[in-house]
Design goal:
The complex is a heterodimer. Chain A is an alpha+beta fold. In chain A, 57% of the residues lie in helices and 16% in strands. Chain A has helices at residues 3-11, 15-49, 70-76, 112-115, 123-131, 140-146, 185-194, 215-226, 238-281, 283-291, 296-334, 349-376, 379-386, and strands at 54-59, 67-68, 81-89, 92-93, 104-107, 135-139, 153-158, 164-173, 181-184, 201-202, 204-209, 233-237. In chain A, strand 7 and strand 8 (164-173) form a beta hairpin. The model of chain A has no long low-confidence stretch (mean pLDDT 86). Classes of the chains: A alpha+beta, B alpha/beta.
Chain lengths: 387, 255
């Protein structure tokens, strides 16, 4: 038996206590590792759902304010712009539910394919969307949720316009992005005109830029175009639009990280208390080791090594669990449109290193104080008190 | 183990040694102006009632504690000069310790307990194991090397502790009440074993004990009372009282 054997034997002296302490450390490391994957995961999520060459144009005052519909036409005429599509909140709800249960908008049907080519909607479905003024295209998840299929008819009553529209589902949006329903803007406009009202506004204008390097100049031109008007606009790429949307989530992550650091500190105190109890119980043995010639540095090193060994094993288990959990999540997400973006949460080598460093820090901090106290105490004093 | 080498030079010499320490608000005078010598290869006992200062004296002799006044020489080394770590290194080389309650590590086998002091040496694992097994053979426990302390009787545990004290081949073996937790049969066996260490391996053995039977095994007795080493008529009276209780021929002479 060597020093490692002695340290290991001491760790196994009270297996339940060691196991419970290791469990607490492993859970703390697991939690930290999962949270450390979140910033990168959010980036991956945004990259997955957003395009860098699509610009969103909204009223500078905020999303709830509208812009003149004419902006779409003017933007289309700007150099570098491939196409632009006006989108207007319809806020349709089923009569029986009385509230909006999925997002639905009126859009320009003949612009969808050019502005959202990456959505890969079936060409025949898009042709029907353009052909039928009551056509609607629906996100896959919403289709699943209501058990709809192509050709089904539904009626939505708008919560902001005084109309109820009969819609025919003509295509599915075959991706895991927004669970939206898009209806034909012309249909809404004509229905309102029949009632003596006019639409004439847009909530968001999506602009497709021909070349990624022109994005900034196009954004500047759009803002210049609407400057000093009644409805000045704010533009950003779709990616930064979603980044802003998730900004509050990143703040939430920061709060979670702060809480996690505090949890880790709690674990340090719990593990430190456990180590102190173990050292107190073995005060006699430690005194005997010192009496037979073990120097203070060896006693200190052995006691710290115990907490380091326990914490590093627990840390490795925590990192392993985090890896297994994110891997399993990725595999599940790969087969599910709804969970797809969660595949972006990956335990990288950096996260592994950070998790292991955290566990070592917990072990070192928890072991230091009791080990220092036990090593420093004069052997004669301990023997006098104990025997 | 070294060959027996009983000599006349004192292995232990104390010169006007006192030990005081503070307990709460009181200063305890554990030992006052104690001078004594123990020659190499002798088996000596410190005897006296509780609180007489015999364990303090043993701690000073074994380098576990340092005196408040006076000088302690062991194996030619003035222990006062050594700091805590130097004393630890000195103890590891020169002293084997035996305690009343055996104080074995419960999670280690008898062999690993005996090999503990050798962890501080440069010996290989195989050599440490070999020496631990030899020490266990010396104390008659070669058939119990893999047993954990909790599966051994009190007498066997004390023999493991003696093997641990012996394994690093020290000049001096120090025992603090080695028979205090043993029945009569095991107590006599332990005293006999300590005597053998002196006779067969030439070790100097110093022991603290209350046990009058010790007088049948030791060469030399130091009687203490209230922190003072008794001399002359007082020492003789204490010795005679113990000799009466020893229940057999007394080998030791009082000092």
């Amino acid at each position: 038996m060597g020093f490692v054997g002695l340290v290991w034997a001491n760790l196994l002296r009270n297996p339940l206590r060691s196991l419970l302490t290791a469990g607490a450390v492993a859970l703390a490391v697991l939690l930290v590792c999962i949270l450390l994957t979140m910033p990168a995961g959010l980036d991956a999520l945004i990259s997955r759902i957003a395009s860098n060459t699509r610009i969103s144009v909204v009223n500078e005052a905020g999303l709830v304010y509208t812009m003149p519909y004419a902006y779409a036409r003017k933007i289309r005429a700007l150099p570098g712009v491939e196409d632009a599509m006006a989108q207007m909140w319809f806020g349709g709800a089923f009569e029986e539910e009385g509230r909006v249960t999925f997002p639905n908008f009126a859009v320009e049907a003949d612009r969808v394919e050019t502005v959202f080519p990456d959505w890969n909607i079936a060409p025949e479905g898009m042709a029907d969307f353009r052909r039928y003024r009551d056509g609607a295209i629906v996100g896959r998840e919403t289709m699943k949720k209501y058990g709809w299929k192509i050709g089904d008819r539904i009626t939505l009553r708008s919560t902001i316009w005084p109309v109820a529209l009969d819609l025919r589902i003509v295509a599915e949006i075959p991706s895991d992005r927004a669970p939206v329903l898009w209806l034909n803007r012309d249909y809404l406009e004509q229905t309102l005109e029949a009632m003596g009202r006019k639409l004439g506004i847009a909530g968001i204008i999506w602009v497709k830029v021909r070349d990624p390097k022109d994005v900034n100049s196009v954004m500047l031109r759009i803002e210049e175009l609407t400057k000093n008007s009644d409805a000045e606009t704010s533009t950003q790429t779709e990616k930064s639009f979603f980044s802003s949307f998730f900004g509050s989530l990143e703040g939430f992550v920061t709060i979670l990280m702060t809480v996690t650091v505090l949890v880790s500190l709690c674990i340090v105190f719990i593990a430190g208390n456990t180590a102190s109890m173990a050292v107190r119980e073995r005060a006699g043995e430690i005194a005997v080791l010192k009496a037979i010639g073990f120097p203070r540095r060896v006693i200190f090193s052995m006691l710290v090594a115990e907490t380091l060994l326990l914490a590093s094993l627990a840390g490795a288990a925590g990192v392993g669990l985090a890896y297994a959990l994110t891997t399993a999540l990725r595999e599940v997400a790969a087969g599910s449109a709804q969970l797809g973006p969660l595949g972006g949460f990956i335990v990288t080598r950096g996260v592994v290193i950070e998790g292991l460093v955290l566990s070592l820090a917990i072990g070192a901090l928890a072991g230091f104080v009791p080990a220092f106290g036990a090593a420093r105490r004069p052997v004669a004093e301990t023997l006098r008190e104990i025997f | 183990m070294s060959e027996p080498s009983v000599g006349r030079e004192p292995l232990i010499r104390l010169e006007h040694v006192s030990r005081r320490y503070v307990r709460g608000v009181d200063e305890v005078h554990a030992l006052e102006d104690c001078s004594l010598e123990v020659s190499q290869g002798r088996f000596a006992a410190f005897m006296g009632p509780s609180g007489s200062g015999k364990s303090t004296l043993l701690n000073l002799v074994s380098g576990i504690d340092r005196p408040s006044d006076g000088r302690v020489f062991v194996s030619g080394q003035l222990l006062n000069e050594l700091d805590e770590d130097e004393l630890a290194a000195w103890r590891a080389r020169h002293v084997g310790l035996i305690f009343q309650f055996f104080n074995l590590i419960p999670v280690l086998s008898a062999r690993d307990n005996v090999a503990l002091p050798l962890l501080l040496s440069d010996l290989s694992r195989a050599e440490r194991t070999r020496r631990a097994e030899i020490a266990l053979r010396v104390v008659g426990l070669e058939h119990r090397v893999d047993h954990s302390p909790r599966t051994l009787s009190g007498g066997e545990q004390q023999r493991v502790a003696i093997a641990r004290a012996l394994v690093s081949d020290p000049d001096l073996i120090v025992a603090d009440e080695p028979t205090g937790d043993l029945d009569a049969k095991n107590a006599e066996a332990t005293l006999d074993l300590l005597r053998q260490l002196k006779e067969e391996f030439g070790k100097t053995v110093v022991m603290v004990t209350h046990d009058p039977r010790a007088l049948r095994f030791v060469d030399q007795v130091f009687h203490l009372d209230k922190g003072l080493l008794l001399e002359g008529e007082e020492a003789r009276r204490a010795h005679d009282a113990l000799a009466l209780a020893a229940g057999g021929p007394v080998r030791a002479r009082e000092v």
